[in-house]
Specification:
The protein has ten helices and four strands. The protein is α+β, with helices and mostly antiparallel strands. It has two domains: about 5-50 and about 170-305, no CATH class; about 55-165, Alpha-Beta Plaits, CATH 3.30.70. Helix 1 packs across helix 9, helix 2 runs antiparallel to helix 7 (about 165-210) and helix 9 runs antiparallel to helix 10. It starts with a helix and ends with a helix.
């Protein structure tokens, strides 16, 4: 196979269709960037659920030495009070499952979540000790609508400081993140479809511009792969440049937005990290190549009739 001709034909094809190739690159870059944003948001939702629990959970905070609730007049929760609370939860028909998070586990989570680049804030976080935090029961309900029934069941028990439904905290966050995720994926899907049509149109125009050379190659017995290769390389090159731009966008989001702003301002959540970003970059690379090469293979078989 004469690769010199293949690369010469590739260069000629790009020069003839510069505007189409640039448009294809930008379409692929924008669509992959939006797709990556949707995946980042999905990963962030998973991080929040992992850190704070699912929206079906209710948290029962137990008394510690600083609690001021009427049910905490004896100070920190006693073993007897803890046993009584556990028995009530175990016997409740509304509770699917529950677990006790002790002060050491709560402190470990606190240290993981509350990290700040602000030295003053970090010093304040470092002042907190395990004894300052409250033990808690994390309860999964059989039906989330039964929150009030479980709340009334344990709210008045001695040793219970407060009851919190995570839906009150997380639902506004989930709604906002879901809007961003769905919106970005819808726009990405539209642009990915536009990219597929643009690949097809680019191949059609390129095949028409090179119809004489293609006819000669058919006459001299050139193989199908030999005729298709310049078109495949052209699509692959456009895809690689588009993927590179999308990767730069993802890296910018991580460096400037997540690490540069959100982590410091909102340390209550565990945020997506570079490991999540690298996985997403790998997925958009595979998608970008498939987006360019698969339509090219189909279109070249149609327009070149090889």
């Amino acid at each position: 196979m004469q690769l010199t001709y293949v690369f010469s034909d590739l260069t000629t094809g790009i020069k003839r269709n510069v505007s189409m190739v640039v448009s294809l690159i930008l379409t692929i870059a924008v669509s992959l960037s939006l797709f990556a944003l949707g995946l980042l948001v999905r990963a962030q939702v998973d991080k929040i659920e992992e850190s704070l629990g699912s929206r079906l959970q209710v948290i029962v905070f137990l008394c510690n030495e600083t609690s001021t609730a009427p049910t905490c007049i004896s100070g920190g929760v006693s073993d007897e009070q803890r046993k009584e609370i556990s028995t009530e939860l175990k016997d409740s028909r509304y509770v699917d499952d529950f677990r006790l998070q002790d002060q050491d586990e709560a402190y470990a989570k606190f240290q993981e979540i509350y990290v700040s680049d602000d030295k003053t804030k970090q010093r304040a976080y470092n002042e907190v000790e395990a004894e300052d935090l409250k033990e808690s029961y994390w309860i999964t309900l059989k039906d989330p609508r039964d929150y009030e029934k479980v709340g009334s069941l344990v709210q008045g028990l001695q040793g219970v400081d407060s009851v919190q439904d995570l839906r009150d905290v997380l639902n506004p966050v989930y709604r906002a993140l879901n809007v961003v995720q769905v919106g970005s994926l819808i726009f990405a899907a539209v642009l990915l479809l536009a990219a597929i049509f643009q690949v097809a149109n680019t191949i059609r125009l390129a095949a028409f511009a090179r119809r004489r050379e293609i006819g000669i190659m058919r006459l001299v017995g050139a193989s199908s792969l030999y005729i298709q290769l310049p078109f495949l390389l052209e699509s692959a090159l456009a895809a690689l440049v588009g993927i590179g731009l999308a990767v730069i966008v993802v890296a910018g989001l991580m460096g400037l937005v997540v690490y540069g702003s959100l982590r410091g301002k909102f340390p209550i959540f565990e945020w997506v990290g570079w490991s999540d970003a690298y996985v997403i970059m790998g997925w958009i690379a595979l998608l970008g190549l498939a987006l360019a090469l698969l339509p090219t293979l189909l279109m070249t078989r149609k327009y070149l009739k090889v």
